[in-house]
Here is the input.
Amino acid sequence: MSNRYVYAGLCGLAAALACSPSRSHEIVGNRMFPATLTIDDPGVADELSLPTVAFYKTGDDPSAKQLDISGEYSKRITEDFAVSFSPTWTHLYAPGGPNGVGASGFQNIETTFKYRVFKNEEHEFVASVGLNIEWGGSGAQDVGADGFTTYTPTVYFGKGFGDLPASMNWARPFALTGQVGYAIPSSSATVTIDPDTGDVDTEFNPRVLVWGASLQYSLPYLKSAVADVGLPDFVNHLIPLVEASFETPVSNTSTSGTLTTGTINPGVIYVGKEFQIGVEAMIPINRQSGTNVGVIGQIHFFLDDIFPNSLGRPLFGNSIASGRANP
Amino acid sequence: MKRLCKVAVALAAFLAPVAAQAHAMLDHSSPRVGSTVASAPKELLLWFTEKLEPAFSTAEVRNAQGTVVSGKAQADRSDGTELHVPLKALPPGTYSVTWRVLSVDTHRTQGSFTFSVGP
Here is the structure.
């Protein structure tokens, strides 16, 4: 991760991972967990996020504007197991990049293997485990792509509050999702030699706790499961939410420090029949996480709805698909 | 970047007209979800967002004691998205509805809600 520290800093790392497009949507009983923009949702599905666009200012000194455009394709192998691929293209505006004049290129390609281990429809609870692999050397170092591979085993969960008593009907559309991962670089340190002075610089690549959560209020859920109060149809498709995505270096931190970086992202998702569109502000939690409020937007397609008899089915099993109960 | 944007637009344009079917989700009902009606309805009507497979689509209504107070759900003859659920005479109270349907593209969905009868 040292290259990323050299060229983009801790905030760039946090922002880049926050914008990585490994998202999906999940349906558990009455509850549809939408594909969140900055953390992954708790389930597996056949889907396509294209594009996800994020624009923000890094926490470097001096700070630089950064544009990320990414996509993700997720394919179920079985009903509970999926594999996703996600490339990200980055443009750093001056004074970003290794020479201070800006840079463009792809980040390392990421692959995520994800298995849903538990699902309780009555209590709208789902949990999955996964392994994210960022393939070192597959991206451009000028935009901060690491030369080494990083493995991030991750636990995901989602809980809807539809099982609250009737006296708390107002709270039943709420849902909480979260993830906790541990990023393990394949190389403990990156050594660079200054070509002019011959000085040797060693950057230790820390192991990083990658964690985040989202709090959602589903108006589709409100209409179809709690109270149809006659809101306009457009409003009945909205899910206001707040996402939070953080990274905390926890070991091998001699050169990185242990400062937690990340963003808190309020926003809204419009959920249609076969797609969703989301937009969020990206509020850095400290100077090292960014110097301005950024923005992230995403168009996301539910391939299991668009191609229910071909591309949207698991490769093995599942003759009849289960699905969500509210739009 | 321009190339990526073009690909995204082309893909969106390609996918949009294909999107003819999806999960059958509850669009609205009569009585409305969560509502209180002054007089007992004779049937519950459910409208979904997609056409249903009638043989695999059901709904039932239970009173506060958990007793089933509905008959067999029937698909509407002219509207493939609509289910009719006959009801027994309902005294004032709160009733829970549970539905399970299969859309014509074989997606199974389920859901529940309540409505009340009374002043």
The interface with chain A takes residues 1, 4-5, 7-8, 11-12, 15, 18-19, 21-29, 32-35, 49, 94, 102-103, 105-114 of chain B (CB under 8 Å). Chain B has one domain: 22-117. Residues 22-117 of chain B form a domain with the Immunoglobulin-like fold (CATH 2.60.40.1220).
